[in-house]
């Protein structure tokens, strides 16, 4: 199976950068990562968690992994220790400070070849003129590693996608914060 990664906004607090700190440290910063390397110009910014509008819990709940700007994973130290050796070749780890704790933004750089993406049933998802991805994509899984994370050109490099092995690793180690939406890999 192939899954689109989404943050579990109902169960966990959401992440965002301290925008003033971010722009002060990196004046030319753009939120559009789109599978481009950022590490050479990255200056460790501050970020924080907040109670998002979709949160339905009663007490603050900080996840091990969150999603920022739709396709970037934010990992706490534990998530980094569990996942880093498995996904290191698929992107870069950008340091982020959250309440004096070390976190890492995983910028997914691995882009699937169009030859392994089936667009037969694909439909663009647009809301109020904003492109939010593509539904109905299928991925031919034979060319992927067991634990893999990637983006797709056909999806405009917006979301990060993972294999069943990635999901299993998160579940087996008790990592929290993600929702895995199946996109029906073939």
Characterization of this structure:
With 186 residues, this protein is of the alpha+beta class. The chain has one domain (2-182). The chain is 15% helix and 37% strand. The chain has 3 helices and 15 strands. The chain has helices at residues 19-25, 77-87, 164-173, and strands spanning 2-7, 14-17, 46-50, 65-68, 72-75, 91-98, 101-108, 111-112, 117-118, 123-127, 130-135, 138-139, 149-152, 161-163, 178-182. The chain has a 6-stranded mixed sheet. Strands 8-13-14-1-15 form a 5-stranded mixed sheet. Strands 9-12 form a two-stranded antiparallel sheet. A hairpin with a 2-residue loop joins strand 10 (123-127) and strand 11. Helix 2 (77-87) packs antiparallel against helix 3. The longest helix is centred in the middle third of the chain and has 11 residues, at 77-87. It is globular and about 45 Å long. This is Immunity MXAN-0049 protein domain-containing protein. It comes from Thalassolituus maritimus.
